[in-house]
Amino acid sequence: SDEEQKCPEFTDLNIGNALSGTTLHVQLLLYTRENHDCAEKLIEHNVAASQFLNTTKKSVFVIHGFRPTGSPPVWLGDMKRLLLSSEDVNLIIVDWNRGATTVNYIAAVENCWKVAEILKNYVDQMLVGGASLDSMHMIGVSLGAHVAGFVGQKYNGKFGRITGLDPAGPSFNREPPERRLDRTDAQFVDVIHSDINVLGFKKPLGTIDFYPNGGMDQPGCPKTFFSG
């Protein structure tokens, strides 16, 4: 319908997609205080065509992680509202649900590098349009934390800030710094470890690392990892 055309949504998949696997497709959904309820999809090879992107403002990218059930992350709406209410930013939701939705975790891990390549293309265009690396902040959840690290690495640590929320442990625990999120990936890297006893990364990764409740199970959170 016209309404769907006007307001692009985060890709909604299901367990069937996870079982069959998904081919990587990345879309960037821009929200600002001018369009907080209706995303604008950034055009991959023409970011400058955006109606709402203001490169003089800070840009915050939110990158989700592994999606074994295919559904949009339950926290996405709350995070969008909180970020836009606290600061007048370009809020860019990085939707790589096609690529993260699979029961094969290793396939999703391999896609992280490709997502980072695609994001670099968008960031490069924003820089040409007047944005600065200083005013860019990537918030990555789970695998998304490592994606953010890979992007930051491509700019030799000049990226403003990276926040890693529960960075993924499996496939990354024994990797060298250049193959995971690391404190050299941005000017400031803050990390919250919240599941180190199961799927999270145990060791410090950032300029500063927080371990709420010892970094293990969090009160009020479901016991199953499918809820992420």
TrEMBL record:
Cellular component GO terms held in the UniProt record: extracellular space
Q: Which Pfam families match?
A: Lipase
Q: What role is this protein assigned?
A: Hydrolyzes specifically phosphatidic acid (PA) to produce 2-acyl lysophosphatidic acid (LPA; a potent bioactive lipid mediator) and fatty acid. Does not hydrolyze other phospholipids, like phosphatidylserine (PS), phosphatidylcholine (PC) and phosphatidylethanolamine (PE) or triacylglycerol (TG).
Q: Which Gene Ontology terms cover its molecular function?
A: phospholipase activity
Q: Write the lineage as a comma-separated list.
A: Eukaryota, Metazoa, Chordata, Craniata, Vertebrata
Subcellular location per the Swiss-Prot or TrEMBL entry? Secreted
Q: Which reaction does it catalyse?
A: 1-hexadecanoyl-2-(9Z-octadecenoyl)-sn-glycero-3-phosphate + H2O = 2-(9Z-octadecenoyl)-sn-glycero-3-phosphate + hexadecanoate + H(+)
Signal peptide coordinates: none
Where does the Lipase domain lie? 19-224
Record-given protein name: LIPHA Lipase
Instruction: Tell me which family the UniProt entry assigns to this protein.
Output: Belongs to the AB hydrolase superfamily. Lipase family.
Query: What InterPro entries does the entry give?
Result: AB_hydrolase_fold, Lipase, Lipase_N, TAG_lipase
GO BP terms in the entry: lipid catabolic process
Q: Which domain of life is it from?
A: Eukaryota
Sorted alphabetically, the keyword list is: Disulfide bond, Glycoprotein, Hydrolase, Lipid degradation, Lipid metabolism, Secreted, Signal
Does Transmembrane helix count among this protein's keywords?
no
